[in-house]
Structures are given as structure tokens and as C-alpha cells.
Specification:
Helices cover 27% and strands 23% of the residues. It contains 22 helices and 41 strands. The longest helix is centred in the last third of the chain and has 22 residues, at 941-962.
Length: 999
């Protein structure tokens, strides 16, 4: 919520956004916020409020299967058994050392070695370039400049959820391309496209018929690639496959082709190298990733990169036909200690796999005991809304086929008729009643004959099925944002696992019978894993001193204490602004609400008094108090009308509009978008929302946080770092830039209404040096789902020009932080975005030096410190980091609830020659400069602000389209970048664009 600095920045379990940050004042930050943060239980970040609930972990077996296969397999088996007892295993190589296996060999690997020469002749092998740095590759990520940081005075022994992978560098993985199409007879409107479940079915049938032992020696990515430890028959095969006993077989054409040999020696060379010119072996890592997920994909429910068990003990029943499941997500990481499997805890919500009748009873609290019951129009409408687009299977015949619910039929089952072929007339049709059809064809009597049938028609083929013969398909994800408050509370308790709960669950998951390493497939590929979490050492950086004013107005030094938090007790802000023109638009009550009038008067008095004590010169009385209600806030046109009325009637300049809302967090309410867009893009008014039920309590932390935010938005300065940032002690001006892109999601409003919804790019930059705590921003729409910031250079140029106008000098150094990109996109950031920036900003006589750092929160690495969260300032830059590139993990915030997640910083380019110590301490110190907060945040502020601004741009767009603005007619032009009409997209008002209005 906006008027609290602790509005949920630290929570990955957040409501409306996909990342948490870790902000708070005094008591620390809760979840939710003015960014309409959404539930994301897979990214929970160490929340600063609330309590987690304990849940039991499953106790799957810890041993892999055993079997023959010579000395190597015996050694591997011994190693696994020893590992489960906590002793070291030496069965296979860790990636940095040579193989220590026995003298025997796997028949599967012998097969590979025997055909290696033949494969070499047949396959056109595409090897990555072995060129020197820069040749044919452009810029590459820089190497680590030293052996890591040395500044931290305190050291901590940590456990990290990395499990060392052992592999034999002599192994060759064979990559096959598999193409599956449906054989089309001469039928109109026939479709040869094959779904992924069908592909899996056909692939399994191919292996069963052509190579019966292939199932345990292959891994499939679900689409185009099969990775095999044995030579498979290739060629073109015609296969007839049935989806169920009662289904007519479909004929498929399956083409198998050997395309590549992947030698694990190449991976070992990469792990042991110190040369950034050596390309990352992406194909090998992708193959191993598929192999490690193969058993999980067969035994668990897969949603994206996460896997959830099907066992009853893992289910948390939420009611209304919804369950929450605990699972795991995993990824392979090349690290300094070798190849590591990173395994983390994950939670998601699903519809129960129930008969449709039972599901509707759970969903709506209906009783279906009366078989003669019928539905009211409202009841039918509710059921149709609940069932539409869900997947079901049928129970009246044996089939695994899945159907999508189109809707409900108008007629009841007993009155439903449909045409079928007339056996007496080959060219004719006859109508048959639903009851008679099911009785004669399947021997089934329709019990609920007054209920309508489900319409499962597809591709013009009629298919009506009574509800009682349908069952929901397993693993249908349920949107977390649609959970009610009680359900959200239950999921929050499950998701925000305490460190020891998360650690134990991860360890048990790795050893489980249906876990990532419990399949015969690993024996064929000579893979092993250390079941013990990696032990690492983390340093703890000292917090920086802050400059603030004492109660007499004199500058003073403040050292954050008590988990690196501080407060404004007997303190003043460093630079308080005058707030003469402020007004109140109260959406939380009505004109006749006498109690609300009293509460509002008390709050105004408290806010003004506390602001003045902080050194913020706020006028004693607001210019006006306008009463409204939440119904007005729900209507964009009524919001516009009341804001325009206020704007026209005020003779004095309105600087700040304070908007109390009732109960709900402002960011959740649809009217919040209208309020922000109209005030910030059309009227040029700073807005500050607050929750009236909390504000009326006159809590000091709440009031102080609101005053700090108002001061920041008006251009004031609450506090600054006492000393210069490390590595930047000279007098040359420095600008910090943050950049992020917000993409539309499947559940965004505009994604359902406007398939051309753009992505929103945002760039923020500091405007004052050396304080570096005031930021300006620029927002641009761009082609949907495009990660590259298409106008990066021009946005940076505008911000540099703004800096020069304010400071009378251009910045000579630029530290650029890029958010939201993965390892595979580093090349794009370096060779496209950085090149665009340099091309745009560099001119005759001006060429600033640039350091480029990627900040990543979407990773799965977690630290465990004696079963509790790590301290703020914990940094790890050895053992679990990249073998030679310049990266480190920094946990800069304090998490009370859940398990804290560090930010992974990866330095791609550095023209300032920073040491590890300098960059780590600089970033950590910057985390104390997030102006609305009185504790360090979990993400460096330039990126934090960019993330907030990008989401604000998303809100502008959503309201712009929804409100039917004349400008929104341009939305159809977002199909390609060339057709963008940027002049029509809502732009921040000129009065605000140089202020930190978005905080």
C-alpha cells in the first residue's frame, strides 16, 4: 500500500507483481502495494510481516535404483548408498576432476562409443566458436577481476541448495530430432497439427516398438528433441496409436533423425577454463537439463519449470474445489565447484481432479442429492462461467482423450436431441434423444436429466455430454489472484516456508523416489549427484552510515542497527519540501458519515504535526476536502469528472492530492489505475493513496512513512549516505541507471481484450550526485513480449540531458543496472542494448565510461544459516558462482517471514575497473538509499524504481484502453514497432517527469 514504505517490497509472495523487494520502516514491510502486486508463491523473498505455517514434508525414499552394468555401475551404486549416509562418494567425476569410476563400463555407453565414428560421418556437427575474445562474438561478459571480495569482517558458514553433479567426461550424448505429424486422410478441414500430449504418446510407442530398452536410456523435451545414451533407429515410421480402448487408432508419421553428438568433455573444459572467449556449452547444458527432468516429467505434474507430486499427503485443501501443492523447481548451473543442480521449493494452486458434479457442489456449496433438480438462470450462468475453458475427460467410455468445455447447452439432458447417421439411409440423418442414445450405445442411464449437458464440441464436430459423465482433468492450474482472503492466507502460510522447513523439503525432494535422481536413466548417462547441500562461506558487509538531521536541524551521522533498520524518532529529513497546495479526495466514506469526518480530521492533524516535526513544511489545512465513495472510484469516467472538477475550481496550485480509500489496498482496486493515469499524465498532480482503516489508527510508523513518501515525490531528500560510494570517490559526476521491461501476462485484462497489448519498457536515472537518491524516469511501449529495450539509447539520452540541465554538467561515469534478463539474453544486452546506448549518447567531446550489471531475482539459489535467514549484507562470490565470469550473490535486506532470497548480480561490462570489494560494497550501500524506506531493500534502487515505473506504465495502458479514451484507438497499432504512435500513448506530465513521483 502506497502510504506505507513497508508495502510488500520484500515479498516474492506478493499480490500483483512477480517479484518482491524487502522494504519497511521500523516494524518492516508487509505484502501488497501500490504496484498491485500479485501472488507469486514461487518467488517468496523473506517477507517482513506475518507468520508462516508449518507443513509436513513427504518422506520419499532416498536411494536410487540399483542394477548391473560392470564396475562403473557398482561404484556408482556404492557412491549413492554412501552419499545417503552422509559420506563422500567418488563414483564419477565432479566436472573439475577426472573420472574415478571402476574398470567396467555401461553397455549403453559402449554402444555410443562403437557408433561414434559412424555418427561423425553422418552428422553435420555444429561446434561453437573457439575464437579469441571478441572475434565473431562481439562483446562477451568480462572475467572476474580478482579472487573475490575481502572486505567483510564477519564470515558465515552457509548451506546452499546446490547439489554437485558428477559426470563422466568421456560420455557422448546423442541428440535426435523427432518430427511427428498426423496422417491426413482426404477429409475436409483435417488438421495435421499434433499436441504435446499426443507427441509424447507417439514417442513412447515408437520406442516401445523400435527399441524396447530405449525408454530408460532416453530423455525427451516434449517437443522436438530426444537425448539418448544409445543409438536409436532413425528414419521415417508410420505408427497407429490409440488414446484409449474405445478410441479409434490415429495414424502418425514419425521422423527420427540424428543431428548432433554432445561430448561432455566440452563441458568439463568449460568448467575448468578461465577464458571468457570459450563459448558456454548451451546444447550440452540443455541436454543434461532435460535428462535431469525426465523422471520428474514422468511421475509429477509439470507447470512451467516446476514439478508437483500427485500424492495425497502433499495436498493442502483450500475449499471450493481448489488445492495447493508443494513441489520443486530445478536448474543446472555451471559453478566454480563444477556442475551443480539447484533445487528449490515451489507452491502452486490447482483445481481438484473431481467429477464435474462433485466439483460444482464444492465450488458453489450446492447439494446434488435431488436427481430431479434443475438450475435457475443465475445458477446456470455461474456454472457456465466456472466451467468454461476447463478440460474434462469422460467416464462413460474408456479413453484418455481430453475435451475443452465450450459452455452449457440451453436444454436439459432429457430434452436434448442431436443428429446421428441413419443406418437405414446411408445418406440421411435422424434425431435421437440424449437419454435414448446413452442407454442404447453405452448402457448408461442419465440420472441428472434436468441438468444441461456440457458442450464439448470442437472443429465443427458436435459433442454434448451430460455433466455426470465428465470429470475434471488433473493438474489444471487455478489463478492465485482469484483466491478469496482465507484461501490466500492458507497459501501464504504454505508458500512462505521457514528456512529449516524449506531446507528439509528440498533435501527430501532430491532423494525422493519420484525425485530428479531416482531413475535408471542416470546409469545409462553415467551421471551422479551429491545428495548433500553445498557448503559455502558468506561474508557480511558492514552497513553504511547515513546523513540525517537531528531535532535541532543539524546534520548528524546515523548508523543503522537492529537488523540494519533505523527510524526518525527525534530526527528530521535532510531536505524537507514546502507543501502548501494539498487537498483530500476521500473515497472511503460519504457526506453523511459523521464518524468518518471525525477520523479524517484527527488524521489530518496528526499528518501535519508529524510532517512538521520531520522538517517537511506542510500547510496546516488542506485546500479542500472532497467527499466521494468507492463506487465512484470503480468508474474511470466518474473519476475523471471529479478530478477535472477539482482541477478547474482550484485557484491555488494543487501540488499533492491525498486519496484515502476504504479497506482494500489501493493497488488492487481498478480505480487506482484511473486515478494515477489521469493525475500523472493529464493534470500533473502528485497523488498519495492510503487505507482509511489503517490511517484512522494514527500509527506513527504509518504516518511517518506517508510523510516521507510525500516529501520524496515533491523533490525532497529524506536521508543520504554519509560517505562517498566505494570506487567513486573522485569529483567526477556519476549517474546510476536502472532498466526493466514489463510484459503482458495471460491474466492481464488487456491480454483478454487486446491481443496486441504492448510490453512496457522503463528507464530510471539518478539526478543528483553524490547523494544519488532522486530519480527521473522515461516510459516507452514497444512490441509485445519483446525483451530488448528498443529505444534504450534515446531514453538514456533524454535522462542525461535532464541531468545536465539540473546539474549544469553531464555525468562522466554511468553505472547501468539491467533487470529481468536471463543468461541466454546477456549477448543481446551487451551487443544490442549497450551498443544502442553508446551510439545514442556518445558525441564529439562526450563519451562517459560505463559499467553494466545485470540484477537477477528470478533464480532458485537459497542460503541457509543455521536454519534461519541470513543477515543483511551477506555476500557470496566463491564456489557457487560462475567458474570465471564476474558475478556474486548479495542478500541486502532482512527477512522475517519466509526464506530470504539474495539478488544475483552479474557484471557484463566494466570500464571503471571495479574490484569485487568495491562493487559489492557500492551496491550494498545503494540499497540503503531507497528513499521511501527506513531499511535496506533487496534490490539495488535504480532497478527497483525501473521495475515500479514499468508496472506504472502497464497501469496507464490498461486504464487507457479500458476507459475508452480517444487515444486508445491507437492500441491496434501495437502489432509492430514501426506502427507505434507514441504521441498517443499516455506520457507523464511535464511537471512530474523529473520527480520521483512513482515511489
Amino acid at each position: 500500500m502506497e502510504s506505507q514504505a513497508h508495502r510488500g517490497r520484500s515479498s516474492g509472495y506478493s499480490m500483483g507483481r512477480d517479484r518482491g523487494r524487502g522494504v519497511g520502516s521500523g516494524g518492516g514491510g508487509g505484502s501488497g502495494g501500490n504496484r498491485n502486486e500479485r501472488l507469486d508463491v514461487q518467488q517468496n523473498d523473506g517477507l517482513d510481516q506475518g507468520n508462516g505455517s508449518e507443513f509436513r514434508c513427504s518422506r520419499g525414499g532416498g536411494r536410487s535404483g540399483s542394477g548391473g552394468g560392470g564396475g562403473y555401475l557398482a561404484a556408482l551404486k556404492r557412491g549413492i548408498e554412501q552419499d545417503n549416509l552422509g559420506r563422500p562418494q567418488n563414483a564419477v567425476s565432479s566436472g573439475r576432476n577426472s573420472s574415478e569410476g571402476g574398470g567396467g563400463s555401461s553397455p549403453a555407453i559402449d554402444d555410443v562409443n562403437q557408433v561414434a565414428a559412424d555418427v561423425s560421418r553422418k552428422v553435420e556437427v555444429s561446434q561453437p566458436p573457439k575464437s579469441s575474445q571478441g572475434q565473431n562474438r562481439g562483446r562477451v561478459p568480462i572475467n572476474r577481476p580478482d579472487g573475490g571480495g575481502r572486505l567483510s569482517e564477519k564470515q558465515r558458514s552457509l548451506l546452499v541448495n546446490h547439489f554437485l553433479v558428477k559426470f563422466d567426461p568421456d560420455v557422448v550424448i546423442l541428440q535426435y530430432d523427432i518430427d511427428i505429424i498426423r496422417k491426413i486422410e482426404s477429409k475436409p478441414n483435417a488438421n495435421s497439427k499434433v499436441s504435446k500430449p499426443e507427441k509424447l504418446l507417439v514417442k513412447n510407442e515408437y520406442l516401445r516398438r523400435q527399441f524396447p530398452t530405449g525408454m530408460s536410456a532416453t530423455a525427451y523435451d516434449g517437443d522436438k528433441n530426444i537425448y539418448s545414451a544409445i543409438r536409436l533407429p532413425d528414419g521415417v515410421f508410420e505408427l497407429a496409436v490409440s488414446k484409449g480402448e474405445d478410441d479409434r487408432p490415429q495414424t502418425y508419421i514419425c521422423t527420427i533423425k540424428l543431428v548432433k553428438r554432445l561430448e561432455l568433455k566440452e563441458l568439463q573444459d568449460y568448467l575448468q577454463s578461465s577464458n571468457s572467449a570459450l563459448p558456454r556449452p548451451r546444447d550440452i547444458l540443455q541436454a543434461l537439463d532435460v535428462i535431469f527432468k525426465e523422471n520428474l516429467s514422468r511421475t509429477r505434474i509439470q507447470i512451467g519449470k516446476s514439478f508437483y507430486p500427485k500424492t495425497e499427503e502433499e495436498k493442502c485443501y483450500l475449499g471450493r474445489g481448489i488445492v495447493a501443492l508443494r513441489g520443486l523447481q530445478q536448474s543446472l548451473k555451471p559453478t566454480s565447484q563444477g556442475l551443480a543442480l539447484c533445487v528449490d521449493y515451489s507452491v502452486n494452486t490447482f483445481l481438484e481432479q473431481l467429477p464435474v458434479i462433485n466439483f460444482l457442489g464444492e465450488r458453489f456449496g450446492m447439494s446434488f442429492g435431488d436427481k430431479k433438480m434443475s438450475l435457475t438462470p443465475d445458477g446456470k450462468r455461474n456454472i457456465e462461467d466456472a466451467m468454461k475453458n476447463l478440460k474434462v475427460t469422460v467416464k462413460h467410455r474408456k479413453t484418455s482423450q481430453k475435451f475443452v468445455v465450450v459452455g452449457l447447452r440451453e436444454l436439459s439432458a432429457k430434452n436434448e436431441k442431436f443428429p446421428i447417421d441413419d443406418p437405414k439411409d446411408p445418406n440421411g440423418k435422424k434425431e435421437i434423444g440424449m437419454q435414448k442414445y446413452y442407454d442404447s450405445k453405452y448402457g448408461k442411464k442419465i440420472a441428472y436429466e434436468n441438468l444441461p449437458c456440457l458442450d464439448l464440441s470442437r472443429n465443427g464436430k458436435t459433442n454434448y455430454v451430460p455433466m455426470e459423465f465428465c470429470e475434471l482433468v488433473e493438474a489444471q492450474k487455478y489463478p492465485k489472484e482469484e483466491l478469496d482472503k482465507e484461501q490466500q492466507k492458507m497459501v501464504r502460510g504454505l508458500a512462505l516456508a521457514k528456512p529449516y522447513e524449506r531446507k528439509n523439503y528440498i533435501c527430501l525432494s532430491v532423494k525422493a523416489k519420484d525425485g530428479p535422481y531416482s531413475s535408471e536413466i542416470f546409469k545409462h548417462f553415467k551421471l551422479g549427484i551429491d545428495f548433500n547441500m553445498t557448503k559455502a562461506t558468506g561474508g557480511v558487509l558492514n552497513p553504511p552510515g547515513l546523513k540525517i538531521r537531528d531535532q535541532h536541524g543539524n546534520e548528524t551521522h546515523l548508523t543503522p542497527e537492529n537488523n540494519c533498520q533505523w527510524n526518525f524518532s527525534n530526527k528530521k529529513v535532510l531536505e524537507g519540501k514546502k507543501v502548501d497546495g494539498w487537498g483530500i479526495l476521500d473515497f472511503s466514506g460519504s457526506l453523511r458519515d459523521i464518524r468518518r469526518s471525525y477520523e479524517l480530521s484527527a488524521f489530518i492533524k496528526c499528518l501535519v504535526q508529524r510532517s512538521r516535526e520531520l522538517g517537511i513544511h506542510m500547510k496546516e489545512e488542506p485546500l479542500f476536502i472532497e467527499r466521494s465513495n468507492m463506487q465512484v472510484l470503480e468508474n474511470p469516467h466518474r473519476v475523471r469528472s471529479i478530478l477535472e472538477k477539482i482541477h478547474k475550481e482550484r485557484k491555488e496550485e494543487l501540488q499533492v492530492l491525498l486519496c484515502p480509500v476504504k479497506e482494500c489496498r489501493p493497488g488492487y482496486h481498478p480505480g487506482y489505475k484511473s486515478l494515477k493515469r489521469i493525475c500523472e499524465t493529464e493534470l500533473g498532480i502528485v497523488t498519495q493513496c492510503c487505507r482509511s482503516n489503517i490511517a484512522s489508527k494514527l500509527d506513527d510508523h504509518y504516518v511517518v512513512n506517508m510523510a516521507l513518501q510525500i516529501n520524496l515525490k515533491m523533490g525532497g531528500s529524506n536521508f543520504v549516505l554519509f560517505n562517498r560510494l566505494p570506487g567513486l570517490a573522485d569529483n567526477r559526476h556519476v549517474m546510476f541507471i536502472g532498466a526493466d521491461v514489463n510484459h503482458p501476462t495471460g491474466k492481464d485484462w488487456e491480454s483478454r481484450q487486446d491481443l496486441e497489448s504492448p510490453s512496457i519498457a522503463a528507464v530510471t536515472a539518478s539526478m543528483n550526485w553524490p547523494a544519488a537518491n532522486k530519480y527521473s524516469s522515461r516510459i516507452r511501449p514497444q512490441k509485445r513480449r519483446t525483451e530488448r529495450i528498443l529505444e534504450f539509447g534515446s531514453m538514456c539520452l533524454e535522462l542525461i540531458q535532464t541531468y545536465a540541465r539540473i546539474n549544469k554538467v553531464k555525468p562522466e561515469k554511468i553505472i547501468l543496472f539491467r533487470d529481468g534478463v536471463g543468461k541466454s539474453q546477456f549477448d543481446m544486452v551487451l551487443n544490442e542494448e549497450l551498443a544502442d546506448i553508446k551510439s545514442a549518447i556518445c558525441s564529439e567531446g562526450y563519451s562517459p565510461t560505463i559499467t553494466l550489471v545485470v540484477a537477477q531475482k528470478r533464480h532458485q539459489t537459497r542460503f541457509f544459516l543455521q536454519n534461519r535467514n541470513v543477515e543483511p549484507g551477506t555476500v557470496v562470490d566463491r564456489k557457487i558462482v560462475h567458474p570465471f565470469e564476474f558475478d556474486f550473490y548479495l542478500c541486502s535486506h532482512h527477512g522475517i517471514l519466509g526464506t530470504s532470497k539474495a539478488t544475483h548480480y552479474h557484471v557484463l561490462w566494466d570500464e571503471h575497473s571495479f574490484t569485487s570489494d568495491q562493487l559489492q560494497q557500492m551496491i550494498y550501500n545503494l540499497c540503503y538509499t531507497f528513499a521511501p524506506s527506513t531499511k535496506p531493500v533487496s534490490l539495488v534502487p535504480p532497478v527497483y524504481y525501473a521495475d515500479t515505473v514499468a508496472y506504472r506504465g502497464r497501469q496507464y495502458y490498461e486504464d487507457w484502453v479500458k476507459s475508452g479514451s480517444p487515444a486508445s484507438s491507437a492500441s491496434s497499432g501495437f502489432s509492430s514497432h514501426a506502427s507505434f504512435d507514441l504521441s498517443r500513448f499516455p506520457k507523464v506530465h511535464s511537471k512530474l517527469e523529473d520527480l520521483t513521483f512513482f515511489a
